[in-house]
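OP here, attaching both records as promised.
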Amino acid sequence: MAIAVSGIEPTPTMPVHVTVTHRGLNARAEPEGEQTEGIGYSLIGCYEELAHPVRVLNHQVPWDKGSVTSCINACYNSGPYTGLFGPHYLFAAVINGDQCWCDNVMNVKALQVDQNRCNHLCENGPFEYCGGSREYQLYYWGETGLIPSTVNPANPASVGAGSGYYVFKGCFPDSPHSRVLNGLSYSSEHMTPLYCAHICWAQRFIYSGVEYGNECWCDNTLNVGSAVSVRECNQSCEGDSTFACGAPNYISIYQGAPRLS
């Protein structure tokens, strides 16, 4: 992977803003020092990747590996978010010079690092930086200068309705040797807190819990100690990355009403 070396011309650039028009993305991305006001994707910093399987962003998309603009264009045209100009992802990022990632949230534990660590060149475009070996060069959709502070995967306060209504009880440590919930387990690429609650409700369980992004656990009793900070349950659900589904060894617990026999 190519890394920029000082003294070699031309000097690579790092776009700070890619504007959007009614016809789509502007063909020109503004480098540092030439930022244009307007709606588009703005650079918010260099962020270190998290420990597997948790990621800062969760949706990898194909791109030509030639420029930041091409990655942003891929995210803009791939996402489920319907906004002013149609479906798009709110976040776009390049990493390692050859990967493009998108999402509508960023992990709550994402750590911003020195911008100089995003020093890898785009694989097919040696005149722009495209992140670091484990660092995202991260862009966010919105007005110029807007820096998101609370756009993270959410543990909803409640899910379901009627007799299938479940209330969030907190984030708890879990272990393969001492499970918080033991009645039923299920995994799915469609997992969300609501999806799991439906499964547990159908099997007449009071408690439902999501973990590891794609696991659902049910039971009528809790084998649990004290709750921990909800920040520990920070892994995006595989079924919808805007929601949190626990994390490795942490489970998001929801409680429903007792079912009549």
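Record two, same layout:
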Amino acid sequence: MPPVVTQTLAYGPRYRAPSPLKLLATAIALGARPCKRVRVRSLSSPPARFVAPLALFCRPSSSHLSAGNSLFSQMERYWTGRGINSNKAMVEQLQNYGIMRSKKVAEVMEKLDRGLFVPEGTPAYLDSPMPIGYNATISAPHMHATCLELLEKNLQPGMHALDIGSGTGYLTACFAMMVGPQGCAVGVEHIPELVADSVKNVQRSAAVPLLKEGALSLHVGDGRLGWPEHAPYDAIHVGAAAPEIPKALVDQLKPGGRMVIPVGNIFQDLKVVDKNSDGSISVHDETSVRYVPLTSRAAQLRGF
């Protein structure tokens, strides 16, 4: 039996589609070889033009397609999700594919309608990143679910959470729903127009009481510096790829806290950073991802 590559390739918030050559290079970096099987835990729907270069390199034999673990079987599953037209159906799809296992995360994502956090006319429930303007996107639903589950133990009632690159406010609102009125969920975004829109989005959502009570707040700022006012944080999420883990964010993480952050340039890993009681940190790689850089507002508006 051909060996199995168990690395995941996922596309996160502020995603830009890689070129076919970069996607093929990623397959090589993950150790793929002709006729190897590639096991994918979560993969959003890349444009169809990306399939051909990968097919030449790592398409499994027909006998492997039936197992449902190949790259192409997984792609086909997500493409069938294009007909999903409700928030509840989106959550059920993520559960059916084994991406979402937490009942709490499912409950929060079902209560908070993603359709209220995307531009009008956007297919809100498709498992894919969506453009929101200013060279930014809202993450694919499977990445939202993944990050929420990685941070779930640090999003208990009364805890503090920080969302860097908060975009339309969706994930920050999810954090607020999880930490509740006694907790604190802070979103930081360096595009003022997106912050203004995100406040309006939250005001239409199930999270509006938390915004009014001050448990949820959205701010214009440089996310690379964090938001010291409400530090230390039990949970930090970063929605763009840093060349290395920012010290300012580590400093604002509470002992026992956890940060989820993509790190790298062309090849990136979603890193899980846990701060130990003595202040030291432990880091492990969760999955391979593709995010745009954690950079300045000017560089983002220029298109990086």
